[in-house]
Prior knowledge:
By secondary structure, the chain is of the alpha/beta class.
Amino acid sequence: MVSRVRVWLNRTYAENVFFMDQLRRNPSDRAVEIHATHGDPDSPVLAAADTADLEPEGLSPAGYVEYALDQCARRGIDVFVPRLHQSAIVRHRADFAAVGTALLAPTPEAVAVFEDKATAYEAVRSVGVPVPPWWRVRTAAELLAAVEELESAGHTACFKPAAGAGGVGFRVITRAPFSLANLAGFPGPHVQLDLVVEALARAGEPVDWLVMPRLEQPEVSVDCLTGPDNVVRLAVGRTKNGRRRGFTLDERWLAPARLIAGGFGLHHLSNIQFRMFGDHPVLLDVNTRPAGGLHQLALCGINAPWAAVQLALGEDPGTVEPPFLGQDYTVVSGPRPLAPVTLPRQRTGPAEVLLPAVPAPAQPASAAQALPL
Length: 373
């Protein structure tokens, strides 16, 4: 009798409820139990899991590794998919193996290279993968010099943190003055250059940003599955052009992605993103974790999460090729159940000012009559 597989996802993106769904609907018909942890009791991954815990707040990376080892030992975890504190966790792969847990994560060296975008750009450029022009800036003077050089070449400048994920902190520079037009509609990524310079001056401390030209669509995210032998088992591109999404096997995108995934030890699941600089694809970003949209490959007949779990368990799935490419699609939101809240939310920021839980006093009749209808 084949035993069930127990998989743990630590503090991860809400979209990974679909990752969990695919594990349960695996083509091997293998029983899968999923453990999930998060700092937010309202994360849908907690409700989607078979067992779930709230994570302790305030742990150092080393403290989190101890917490994770304890979770794996107590919960009988076979495969751990770490997102939070991935860098610290992968350095202890042998310790997790000692308690019977395989890490579905890259090598420590790969994580270190791609934690910092400037280091990543230098590394991939050294093996022949095209990257956009970029400047690492820490001061207002460096920011202004980079922006002026880009604008003189006819480009729109943008910046993002040198370390970060998910588009957090990405902004597009504009010299148009702040006006009422900026307060109409939904907030966008554009920010006035003078406001950025002023904020830097007020901060009184350096930043760590990359300034680069704004790259054009399409954006292509190549999902890769790579073995510990550095052989890529799966590489499929997901295209994004406005609202329209699709799939591609075009080697313009896949060849450099394979080179990065196999050449830098991006074992298991990774996501390598490209955009256009002029007429040529260039690297945008490298994620050393499963992408939030990985489940979309199901539209091509692929269950990538299960293939990755098999690989982590030493059950090599071999080359994984899509039997077909799904039609173009878009992404819409939908409801997912949440777990009953049985523990208080753990606050990490300043305490919120809460309104008193008492009704407001009734208005005098005269005041009520004076209100416009």
